[in-house]
Amino acid sequence: MSLPVKVMRDGLVEKRSSGLLQLWKKKRCVLTDEGLRLHKSKGSGNGGGGGGGGSCSSSSKAKELRFERMATVDCVEHKRGLVYFTVVMATGKEIDFRCPQDGTAWNAEIALALVRYKNLQAVQSGRNRHLSSASQLGSSGEEEAQ
After folding, report:
1. What is the arithmetic mean of pLDDT over 118-123?
2. Are strands 94-100 and 35-40 parallel, antiparallel or unpaired?
3. Average pLDDT, the chain
């Protein structure tokens, strides 16, 4: 019954594992208007590139990094044709990624989508506060005007 999620970009990134060796593992990354979905890469067959339209299927177990739980995206460095960046979660957990530097880098796409999401949340919150205070003024405003 959930609505299809709009896919903004789909392609390959490398994520640093959280284990002792901290190896870089290729992941298929799907950027949606709700966050990131990281799937195990089944080889580099789909080449990764622009956004495929429509909805996102969650076939295999995907790790989901939702914007509501993200704090920021930090670009760490550009080195040997790669961009290294970190997604910082609201809990303080840091998840390291790297991607090729050519074209629009993933860190920029993710950061812009995160800002867009946070702005929409702030606007919605402001509207809710405005509606709430307007309804309170309508009922109690007459009593205070004695």
Report:
1. 92
2. unpaired
3. 82
